[in-house]
Every structure is written in structure tokens, then in C-alpha cells.
Amino acid sequence: MEPIDPDQWLKTYGAKIEQAKQQAEQAVGQLGGVGGSASSPDGLITVTVNATGVLTDLQIRPEARGMDPREIATAVLAASTKAQREASGRVVQIMGEFVGESPALDFVKAQMPNGYAGDGTDEEEPKSELERKDLRPDDEYFTNPPDVMA
User: Fold this and answer.
1) What is the CA radius of gyration of the chain?
2) Which of 7, 22, 123, 127 has CB 3.0 to 4.6 Å from 131, enough for a Cys bridge?
């Protein structure tokens, strides 16, 4: 076994420390720009959160004035949860790039209070009105009408 050159070892160790520092700074920079945004299904309420899930913006359109306050509160909470999951998904993605699949990433995932986008529990988005329309020709539609009582 060759003797270890202390100067070379120190130089190599210093380079590893510098690389880790640069990666940490890069991660912090990327995480600083992370956020999430979501709207209520009717589009009247939109919330935005930062990487930690803190509400940074709340927009309530004037058309919501006649809504029951409980409906507004429910819509705000639901949109906030969705926005937090979106932001958390991005945090998990960024951290995965830096630490890979590891106990450290498992810890990050476990800290997400509402889970994260892509964790397999995402709600399916409702289809748009255009996607729900029955575009069959009239003859086919009336020969075999849709089951409207289901």
C-alpha cells in the first residue's frame, strides 16, 4: 500500500467540499424559486404558495361576492392543498436531483404535510366541457342515447 500524500489528500478533500458547497447553493437557488398555484374548479379563487407551502397570494374574483363564506373558505383550503402538493412535488424533484433516492429524500417526502404531486395519490382532473361533449352523429346519438340516469 502506497503512503498517502497529505497535501494531495487535502487538495482532493477541499475539491469535494467545494463541489458539495456549489451543489448546495444551486439547490437553494432552485428551491427559492419554487412555488405552486391552484384555482377552485369554477376559477373564482386562485391561491399561490411558496416552496414551504406558505400562502403568498390569494385572488378572489368579484363574481364570488354572492358565495356563502363557508363555500369560499372550502374553496380556498382545497386550492391551497392542491397548490402545496404542486410546490412539494417540485421540491421533491429538485432534492431528488441532488441527493438521489436516499434516506435524505425519504425524509424530505415525509415532511410534506399534504404529500406531493406525483406521489400516486393525485386526484384526477375533471374533463373539460369539450371533452365531455358527445360528438357522435345525430343518428347514432338517438339510436343509442347516453345513460343520463347513471
Assistant:
1) 25
2) 127
**What total number of domains does the chain contain?**
1
The dihedrals phi and psi of 121, each to the nearest 5 degrees, come to -115, 15
Q: Nearest 5°: phi and psi at 138?
A: -55, -45
Please check the confidence at residue 150 and state whether its pLDDT lies above 90. Answer: no
Q: Is residue 68 part of a domain?
A: yes
Kind and range of the H or E element at 46? strand 45-50
70-77 long-range Cβ contacts below 8 angstroms, 24+ apart: 72/45, 75/40, 75/42, 75/44, 75/45, 76/40, 76/45, 76/47
pLDDT of residue 47: 95
Residue 60 lies in a domain: yes
pTM of the complete model: 0.65
pLDDT tens-digit series, residues 83-126: 999 999 988 888 888 888 888 888 888 888 888 888 877 776 65
What are the grid coordinates assigned to 100, written together? 438521489
In a domain, 83, yes or no: yes
26 is a domain residue? no
- Give the residue numbers spanning the domain of 53: 33-113
